[in-house]
Amino acid sequence: MSETAKIIIADQPYEFPVITGTENEKAIDTARLRDLTGYVTYDDGYGNTASCESAITFIDGEQGTLRYRGYDIQDLAVHSNFIESAYLVVYGELPTISQLQNFRHLILRNAAIHQGMFSFFEAFPNNSHPMAILSAMVNSLGCYYPEMASNNREQDLEHLDSAATILLSKVRTLAAMSYRMKYGLPFIHPKPELPYCSNFLHMMFSEPYADYKFNPVVDRALNLILLLHADHEQNCSTSTVRMVASGGANLFASASAGVCALWGPAHGGANMAVIHMLAQIHQDSDDGSRFVAAAKSGDKSKRLMGFGHRVYKNYDPRAKILRKTCADVLNTLGVNDPLLDIALKLEEIATHDEYFHARRLYPNVDFYSGIIMRAIGIPVDMFTVMFAIGRMPGWIAHWRELATGNSPIHRPRQIYTGSPRREFTPIDQR
Ligand code: SDX
């Protein structure tokens, strides 16, 4: 006997099916609510609304659990790397040796960008934000690969494997180029023999006359940061990708929309905001206690950035992993970053403070990631770009899941609160 939920409206009972997920999550299927009752549900910000069924990622916010296709993030962090996990997130299974070799080959082969794309960088003002550049350049990939961006769902799906590896590979090249452009440095071309993260660091930091000196600890840390960002259920940017894809738009356009959504300080922009916050605390010679006191005021402009989460009401498992990596990377690089000391002090104060405890506010993925990226030499305004590179497998996986499913175009309802009907008044009578 399948479970149902009863809603009583004006003493009239209505029954709706209950959907049960793999981990026993429950949802009331209200697809017929309006037809049957004339009512719609209201849930500002969708905090209690499942917009879809998905087999990609599972989060238990109460337990602090995160799994990609059933594999715990802690296991992937220890045993896997970004490209292998990207394959898992996109295709649903860990790759065999030959599948991984082919995936890697396609990514290596697609690292360079079309010569025509270089001219975009001549036109952007030097002080352009890398996220503005990235969203524009990701969408423009559709101009260079029109056969993969036809907006004909069948045709775009036929080319998905190529489009996915083009996107995964070139997002890294475009990011490095936006950094080089901003600092007036010559572009460094990718080296096909280098693995994903090393190639990125090469394109970012090599000079025409001297290659970047690789450090396996840095490479591993960057792999880990990207892996930990690969997917995260229906967050703001991934839901945006699905929304855009639901209208039939191609992968490049959908991913570009995801980049724009990620940019906000409440979402992917938080990793930049964390460093600005820590630097301000350091500059104010505050040990963190004054800032925490201000953060408890409820003033949104004084929030403890990198703390709190719409889903995790426990420690973000990604923050736990990065907290440990932070110390390893800084020790290996011999970097003594006062911002790490301030971050650890803030965490110590906040996690023992009733205000944060009562609201179940804990460090999230953004709290420590920036300190590692800073130690690697990645500038703060590139932090959200790094988040976008890491999240690309998730956006591709959700585009693919929606494109191969039967979802209709996404079209939420609303409750109108504007003016009742009124007559038009000519301008000389207003
Ligand atoms: C990411 O969704 C995802 O999965 C996102 C992400 C991903 O991988 O895609 O995990 C990545 O976006 C992580 C979150 C990064 N953002 C930040 O670190 C920005 C700082 N955090 C806050 O803005 C906030 O915590 C949110 C936006 C993350 C979550 O906000 P909620 O759950 O909607 O909480 P809320 O705004 O309803 O606040 C609840 C209470 C309020 O106090 P009261 O009105 O009840 O007294 O908690 C307070 C808030 O004032 N609060 C904070 C706080 N966050 C919430 N107070 C101080 N500092 C904070 N950071």
CATH class wording of the largest domain? Mainly Alpha
Domain tally: 3
The beta-strand count equals: 6
User: Structural class of the helices, strands and pairings?
Assistant: mainly alpha
**What does the oligomeric state look like here?**
single chain
Explained architecture:
The protein is mostly helical. The protein has 3 domains: 47 residues, no CATH class; 154 residues, Citrate Synthase, domain 1; 107 residues, Cytochrome p450-Terp, domain 2 (Orthogonal Bundle), CATH 1.10.230.10. The strands form 2 sheets. Strands 1-2-3 form a 3-stranded antiparallel sheet. The mean pLDDT is 95. The structure holds s-citryldethia Coenzyme A. S-citryldethia Coenzyme A (SDX) binds next to loops.
Topology (SSEs and partners):
Blueprint: E1 4-9, E2 12-20, E3 26-28, H1 33-37, E4 57-60, E5 65-68, E6 71-72, H2 73-79, H3 82-91, H4 97-109, H5 118-123, H6 130-144, H7 153-158, H8 160-182, H9 196-205, H10 216-228, H11 236-246, H12 251-262, H13 270-283, H14 289-295, H15 317-333, H16 338-351, H17 354-358, H18 366-376, H19 383-403
Antiparallel strand pairs: 1-2, 2-3, 4-5, 5-6
The protein binds s-citryldethia Coenzyme A.
Give a short synopsis of this structure.
With 430 residues, this protein is mainly alpha-helical. It has helices spanning 33-37, 73-79, 82-91, 97-109, 118-123, 130-144, 153-158, 160-182, 196-205, 216-228, 236-246, 251-262, 270-283, 289-295, 317-333, 338-351, 354-358, 366-376, 383-403; strands at residues 4-9, 12-20, 26-28, 57-60, 65-68, 71-72. Helices cover 51% and strands 7% of the residues.
